[in-house]
Amino acid sequence: MLDSDIIIAMLRNDQAALAAFSRHKEKGSLVVSSFTWYEIMIGCGPLSKKGQLAQIVDCLEGTGIMYVDDTVATVAARFNILLSKKGRQIGMADKFIAASCVVNGQTLITRNTKHFEGIPGLKVEAW
Q1: 88-111: per-residue pLDDT in tens?
Q2: DSSP letter, residue 29
Q3: What is the SS3 assignment for 66?
């Protein structure tokens, strides 16, 4: 599962991000969480940056979107409780992205590996 940071880096023509994306696309294993899509749409500003929005849609063609269901929401809530007890917090969207990965057996592809440390069952791959 792609994190938003790799998609943003690809839009900036980051060669490491493009190579990681290509590797995973060849395996046919690319998905994004509906919360990743949400983060990208906010960052893109659909009304003011239509060119970027088209770039993202083209780039992610053939990539599946994993939607949140009650199981993912429950796991995200558990992550919130666990992280709060540890005195750590990450954004709500990131909890849902992590929960989507865990519930669906996906590895999160991100450069922000420290951000996701300590989340039980989450597999993370740095790009």
Answers
A1: 999 999 999 999 999 999 999 999
A2: -
A3: strand
